[in-house]
Amino acid sequence: MKFSVLHILPRRQRKTKEEMGAVGHDPVAATVLSPVMEGSAKTVHGRFRHKLKMPQILGFVPRPRSPKPIVESNPPQTEVVMDFMENLKENRLVEACQQLLLREDQLFGQETMTVEGLVQVCNEDDKDTLQKDYETLLLHLWMAVHTTFSSTPSGEHLEILRSAVETITLLEEKDQQWEGRPEGSSEAPVWRPHQCRHTHDNLLEKMVDSQMRNATVEEDNISVSSVDNLSTSMKREVCRMGKRLKEDVLRVARDIRDCYPPDFDVCNLYVRLYHQKFSARLTELARSGLDVDDCNYLLCWVNNYYPNDILKHKDLEGHINMESLGTLLSEKDLTTLEEQYLLQKESRVRTWFSKALSKEEEGWLSGKSPELIDGYCFCPLAIDIIQAVDGAMREARTILGSEAKAQRILCQLDSFLISYKKSLEEFVKARRENTQAVVKANLVNIEQFRDFIVRREESIPEEIRTSCMSTLADLRDCGYGYFTGPIHEELRVQYHRLWTQAWFTGGQMVLDEVLGTLDRHMQQFTDLKPICVEELLGRLHMEMMVEYVKRMMKRKMRLKDKEQQETAAKLLAEDSSKLSTYFTEAGSKICWLSEVLPKMAEVVRLQDPGSIQLEIVTLARDFPDLSWRHISALLSLKANLSIADVRSIKESLVENRPTVTTCNTIPPFFSKVPAGRTWNMCRPACICYGRRGYSSQD
Predict the structure, then answer these.
(1) What is the pLDDT of residues 590-629, one digit of tens each?
(2) What span, in angstroms and rounded, lies between the C-alpha atoms of 455 and 465?
(3) What single string gives the DSSP state of each residue in 134-182?
(4) Run of H or E including 376
(5) What number of other Cβ atoms are within 10 A of residue 99's Cβ?
(6) Spatial separation of the C-alpha atoms in residues 560 and 293, rounded to whole Å
(7) GO cellular component terms (predicted)?
(8) What is this structure's pTM?
(9) Distance separating alpha carbons of residues 572 and 266, to the nearest angstrom
(10) Contact between residue 60 and residue 24 where contact means Cβ atoms under 8 Å apart
(11) Residue-wise pLDDT tens digits, 289-305
């Protein structure tokens, strides 16, 4: 092997025969001096001069001592220059590559090539030797890259890899120099171009393929606590491949990445290769006809573990392009698996709901009363159903990786509520001994279901939410109506005395009797949960107010003058105060109902048509569902109001209503009140409210 003159190590100077003969053949001396001969001669002589005692030898005449040489205290260190093979042995791949590049330049005279076509004659033996040396260098180069994942990364290993990558860059630059040489230049060497970058990428692809194949046949290293969850060979294979992928790409991001220049984009390169291998194997498995459990596990990896636990790992952040990878499965394969999962999940949820309701019905029909918890009737049905829905939704979101796809599970809740409503209504109609306690317990269920839907309003599709809330409204009517119906039935006789001559004269305390009867009925709800008592009181409050206003608008009274109207307004305000006080103290939260009667009382009290007109507009602003039929019935109480005044009030209301109803948020009230016939404004002005003042038209 021939080397450049600049890179041949200097030979060490040999001793003369006389110097060697002066020592003689004494074995002791030879033994002492032989290891020291590896160092500097001066150092050896100076180190042992006073320690060695020469034996007496016949005929030996000591030579006179030469003057002691002057030794510098800090002699300059001689740089040791390694040849090509020594650099390879020390894994100094960059230095070895630079030596070959220099020899290539010298051998082919690339620096002196010109467009005139001057050609330098190359020695064929030198070319063959250089080609073999390149082959040896490339062998060491690919060995360094190939051992990327073979051992725990260390500083030495990473330095060798960094040297190999730098060498690839040097060889690539030389390839480009040869490709860009002027026309008419000598032909490039047979080993050019090396295409090391292309070979490097192909090698990485084979390494990744080997890593993933080896992962599928490794022994199961999963902890004992997870064995039950990985009960099939498919699950274990996917888990091993996924774990290997994660470990390797994180190793690249943490250690290997620093060995490569940015233009290699090594993190994206490795992730793309692993993604392709993982995707290919998962596609094969997805098309093999998986059972339910294997299907669920595969979807977990595709939609959750891989994108969230691996690609979004903090160590990969900023180093990979997730969008360029795509999904592990094609849209067709993924849709097939997701549909398989949803069908079986819906079936399981539906079956579980049916069993839970059947078990509850058996308890109702057995005649047993619900258990009491904290003194209140309790039924666990709603809690069990809600937990089941939450669990199914949470699992579906994890497996499908999508809130929208998981919402399909909620359709089963809608179906369940319809079945639940049918069962409860049939049971209530039977009027069994335990009906009252069962209804109390189920009112708690209904409120819990409603609260669940309201809290999830934004995440539940509008169609499903509307259907569920409608069913729950019917259930509430069924449950609360079971209690309010008998109460109103008993109060019906007392309602009839409202707004009569007896009520007006104060001879009978009609409203006090009504509230006394109501209070007696409320004593039976001590075992009803407070949230349900509040709703029950709110319904009673609303229904009694509706009944009161309905009796007021029956037109059985005519207030002929100011005195009667002021008296009626005073009684109206007092009744409003009594109702509001009772229900507020009992626990009703419908505070706005306390504003209804005072505003109507003000209309009854006022005498000036302009003031009445303004009050009517205000009333219509506060209660948008107030119709002209209701206003006509209210005005009919005032016998001294002319038809012209009524016409003016109506015109003013028509003109101002579009602007007074835009921002109102009070729930409907007057729409619940049936109104009688309206005042016929075509009658002569002298006709008062009463027997001849009604028309059958609105």
Answers:
(1) 889 999 999 999 999 999 999 999 999 999 888 988 998 9
(2) 11
(3) HHHHHHHHHHHHHGGGTS---HHHHHHHHHHHHHHHHHHHHHHHHHTPP
(4) strand 376-377
(5) 22
(6) 82
(7) exocyst
(8) 0.70
(9) 85
(10) yes
(11) 899 999 999 999 999 99
